[in-house]
């Protein structure tokens, strides 16, 4: 801080004139009020979770005030959250945002502490004691359950776990999904459902050049899945996926679309007054499902061995087992009709059911946030932290951003805006005095000493860079952007080397 | 405070002095080598590097560098394209660019708050801008992939484009790009989810 103080005194000299300078020096640096930073107590902010929400919140804070110091805590030894573990392997451009996050992490006023489990290794209360403000941005690691009989049979997986498995999330290492069946049914029609369908049906030639994990690549090479149904309880105008992902399915080599014409009755008439994004998406869906393809496309479809399709107006009621009750053999779907239209349309049971044979069921109906610390407010009904523009209710000094704040939907851009909003709230509170940043706080010094006493060794950002470098080198050897380390133990070993 | 005001207007920031990242090049102390950080060889990118020698500049929207090779100090007057950015607070920031410049990276070069998460690979919508009507039609039609990504941008309008896809040509002289105001809604398109 000494160079800072010296420079400020130089600036004061220059701006205020000599006599004022002398006075200013005698009065001390606080002389001009809030305009000059207090060198003894910089505002210190702690962010829990190093995914897009955590990094975008950090970025905004660091950029807005020259005195804020931000520490990011992460449970895993590796940063970046869903950018590393959620974004599909064949979407590498989406992961470019890691470069922005890396710059933030390497900023002098930002520090990364991996391998720290907030809630277990250190409590939120202890963090609030050490920092002026704590921002919780640990996302949604839980899963919405279908709540139907047979959900726990072998052959049924949550999309969250399946994606974690092919993306190398350590906790999903042992998933070993059974891909020996011909038909897979995915419940849910959002982008995650489409990612899963695409990974299940993509030609190996494409997958082997991505950062998909080696075990997943090997399992997919042995896969016998030929047909993927993507099932939703409402209709074509309510699909939650976006057009880029739909286009990728339509253009996926070696596959052809197959849908039920009747599902699309009345859809094109309803398109007139619909906003552009929904209109373009639905038009593509209609074209894919109903239009007769041109010669070239017809030929391509004839040669395609694999099939995919949306199925609408169906809700799961039971997973059916084989006679020995040892594995999934099918799924019983209730038939729905729609009440209302647009986003508010509701699926209503008709009483009919339909059984579909399949050996693989993947439920992609939503992630879910979990409470991290019993002392922290949590709305267990909506599975989010109760908040107003990122300020956690009844918890001064506590903020939240990302999916924990708004629920588990949206792409990186959504989370970016969301995180900037939270950062703005925090900055407003600092400015207004609602958040008192004048008393000095110990920040990471205190937390580091607590962690040391508890035998926890954080992983620094340069430790992560050793992991990053090894993964990239391993990837180079086999034509992939990286070959990920698959266990926390391996990661820590490399980090400590 | 004259230099600070100059710094503010050149950076397009309307914050108080304590938050301004001063442009050291305009400071008399710096020029007279009276500033503690103006040591020989410390001429680095990003003027606020001079404030703290251990600071590293962020290359994204807060990069202030104008000293990069081939930058906006165009030598050939025919190459100059005048661009105006209108930031989220409504402030107009005129910039002298050149033919071939990319609107996203030009914004970064001038410290304008335009994110480019996917680094111009048409995989996000964070560089969404509104183009003024006089120049909108002079731009080539967006390719399908750009339209697909625009569909995800909040507050989409008829004159929305992705900044990373706009490359300056001479007939775009005078183009004005407005940064959309970030909303406080949950959803990318302003939609509020209705439970079903």
From TrEMBL, chain A:
Its main location: mitochondrion. It comes from the Eukaryota. InterPro entries: FAD/NAD-bd_sf (IPR036188), FAD/NAD-binding_dom (IPR023753), Ferredox_Rdtase (IPR055275), Ferredox_Rdtase_adrenod (IPR021163). GO terms for molecular function: oxidoreductase activity. It holds the Pfam family Pyr_redox_2. Residues 44-200 form the FAD/NAD(P)-binding domain. Belongs to the ferredoxin--NADP reductase type 1 family. Its EC number is 1.18.1.6. This is NADPH:adrenodoxin oxidoreductase, mitochondrial. One of its GO terms (biological process) is cholesterol metabolic process. Its cofactor is FAD. Keywords: Electron transport, FAD, Flavoprotein, Mitochondrion, NADP, Oxidoreductase, Transit peptide, Transport. It comes from Poecilia formosa (Amazon molly). NADP(+) binds at residues 189-192, 233-234, 245, 410. It is found in: Mitochondrion. It catalyses: 2 reduced [adrenodoxin] + NADP(+) + H(+) = 2 oxidized [adrenodoxin] + NADPH.
From TrEMBL, chain B:
Its main location: mitochondrion. InterPro entries: 2Fe-2S_ferredoxin-like_sf, 2Fe-2S_ferredoxin-type, Adrenodoxin-like, Adrenodoxin_Fe-S_BS, Beta-grasp_dom_sf. GO terms for cellular component: mitochondrial matrix. CDD domains: fer2. Residues 82-183 form the 2Fe-2S ferredoxin-type domain. Keywords: 2Fe-2S, Electron transport, Iron, Iron-sulfur, Metal-binding, Mitochondrion, Transport. This is Ferredoxin-2, mitochondrial. Belongs to the adrenodoxin/putidaredoxin family. The lineage of its organism: Eukaryota, Metazoa, Chordata, Craniata, Vertebrata. Electron donor, of the core iron-sulfur cluster (ISC) assembly complex, that acts to reduce the persulfide into sulfide during [2Fe-2S] clusters assembly on the scaffolding protein ISCU. The core iron-sulfur cluster (ISC) assembly complex is involved in the de novo synthesis of a [2Fe-2S] cluster, the first step of the mitochondrial iron-sulfur protein biogenesis. This process is initiated by the cysteine desulfurase complex (NFS1:LYRM4:NDUFAB1) that produces persulfide which is delivered on the scaffold protein ISCU in a FXN-dependent manner. Its cofactor is [2Fe-2S] cluster. The keyword Transport applies. One of its GO terms (molecular function) is metal ion binding. Pfam families: Fer2. It comes from the Eukaryota.
